[in-house]
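Forwarding these from the shared drive since the link keeps breaking.
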Amino acid sequence: MDLVPTIDIAEPSATSLDALDAACADHGFFLLEGHGLDELIDQTWRATREFFGSAPEVKEAIRRNPDSMLGWYDRELTKRKRDHKEVFDFIDPEIPPEHNPNCWPQGVDGFRETMEQFFDAFDALASRTLDLLHHALDLPDEAARDHTSARSTSTVRLNHYPIGDPVPASEREGLNPLGETALGYHTDPGVLTLLLQDDTGGLQAESAEHGWIDIAPRPGTIVVNLADTMQVWTNDRYKAAIHRVVPMTRQSRYSIPFFSNPPRDCIIAPIDVLLSGQPHYRRFSWREFIKGRADDNFADYGVDDIQISNFRVTD
């Protein structure tokens, strides 16, 4: 049995939607084909590899710091341990410059233009994917319109997982230790994530029925994983995907997630028409939730980061 179904987003069948529903209830992962974005994806891979292969001074010029929350970074934390990766983050390029802290590298030809095209295309694909999930849930139109994602809060990340520590040995003193895995187990905070992964492998999801399973690379597909907001909206019918990346031992790995997030002023709570009993979560704001999750990525405050379990209703 294929635990991670592939859905043709251009023409989804009833059978594939049933498989999607089962996967979302178990581990929160599925694959998309029929997206029509192969050429843009190839361009995005080339730009990504060129950026991470650029001279150290190119990346250092846009290193993330407390005053600039976007750009390049090589010391991110998951569950208070350092990830085995370096990243580049950016947000909606259409946000006016005075409110847009994007930091673009200099000297990487065509990088910014490619990433802007990628953001546009994947934002549109995220909306189509959410429509697919609404259909699988049999969500009425009014409820679907009230539970959307927003371009203005969504983000893109480029990941490079090298073999070994991404931080030079001379700079490691005083840093948190590396995690046992290249990326520690976690869930994403938003609605859903669209992920490009190369052919290296290493991504795993926790299945309620089968334990850790591989999300194996499949040419021409885009990985989708559900995030915390979707689990709350569905009152635990669908699962926010718990996932991790195992350490690289033979070659580097690259991946590119598009994090599709709810509107900035959204109040997150179970959707009334999906309730078959009492809500499992109290209402909370997206602003509150994402601030707690983002802060913890770059600093160790001595406690685990905020989770949707913090808002779970107890007897």
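-- next protein --
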Amino acid sequence: MALWAGRFSKEIDAGVNAFNSSIAFDARMYRQDIQGSIAHATMLGDCGIITKEDSQTLIAGLQEILADIDSGKLAFDPNAEDIHMFVEAELTKRLGDVGKRLHTSRSRNDQVALDLRLYLRDEIAEIRVLTENLCKVLVRLAEQHTETVLPGYTHLQRAQPVTFAHHLLAYVQMFLRDLGRLDDTAKRMNECPLGSGALAGTTYHIDRQQTAKLLGFDAPMANSLDGVSDRDYCIELANTLSILMMHMSRFSEEIILWCSWEFKFIELDDAFATGSSIMPQKKNPDITELIRGKTARVYGDLQTLLTMMKGLPLAYNKDMQEDKEAIFDAVDNVKLCLETFTPMLETMRVNRENMRAAAAKGFINATDCADYLVKKGMPFRDAYKISGTLVAQCIAKGLTLETLPLEEYQKMTPLFTEDVYEAISLETCVKGRVSEGGPSPAAVAKQLVLAKAKLGME
């Protein structure tokens, strides 16, 4: 019989029971459920709501159940309604009437709200470590390529010269912001709903400050209605994870382009690529394609949570059981992507020569050619037109600005002299971009120092 039986005169329909059950997905919170129950039992004993002896018996029983689940000795009952009912039923089975005392002054509403906060707090810590590891890999890779010239793009057209290090550090900045959002989410959600009861607290003189402290929260939630009905932290985390996935998806798109024959800027290690069932020459970037696909899935989880919550009156509604599968799916997929994406980047081979060749053929030093004339006194718009004309001539003749003969330059204006070749060399162009945050080795070195400081790298 269900633990909530009493009001009802007959057993719940088997189909309804299966429809109502959440044990299949919330069983993963067993550790947090037991952790919360131990804190609750401790508080009940300390406040004299139950005897110290019963409190200690409950704690010992809960610890035994945790050990048995961890070891595999105790399996989850698929017929249990949820993880909370499973643990309580097992405790009562082992301890008898003492086990029934655990739920004094507590509701499943504040219990599930607590478990989910505890669980997601732990998951945020894990995702944070994985994101930091990704940043560290990118920083170390950037350190190797501070002078590797890469064409920078706008509209997916070669635009201006940068370095591979500069490009990688742009993603480091994105992921550092993701770390900040994870920290913000963890801080905002670190308030304890336990003691909110079903919605209106309890008539027992409980100590919510104690349970909050025992569970590592900053404080109890200030309002009991909000305590059981708030899922902002799920939505905020799903949003944070969606942005993190968006960053990985953008990077994945570039990896897909870069390892194509049309670019060939990088080559993935064989351990992080797949082949074709029919085309023996293929080496496919399936990991990055899956990350793009899973990004859509995480976005869907965010939409599920927003839509599920948008019309709910206070306080708890059964709709909110749908929060777990959505946020669990988002968490699982982000962790899976980070765990695969990071070693893929760490092991890929960078083709410096192809990057340099693409930069040379893209006329991405055309702005520097115009700047050369401006520095000799010509108005920028006139210099811009001359530089564009020279690019058109190079295209017609199959040349680059670096290989165009000096006499062709001087036909446009006598301001061009032999030093133009030094001024428009890709290396000079990159080194000359000394503004803060730019691609010059000196500017990149400062970016590396800042990133390493934020990541605690030496």
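Strands lie at 149-154, 157-163, 191-192, 219-220, 266-267, 349-350. The longest strand covers residues 157-163.

- D.
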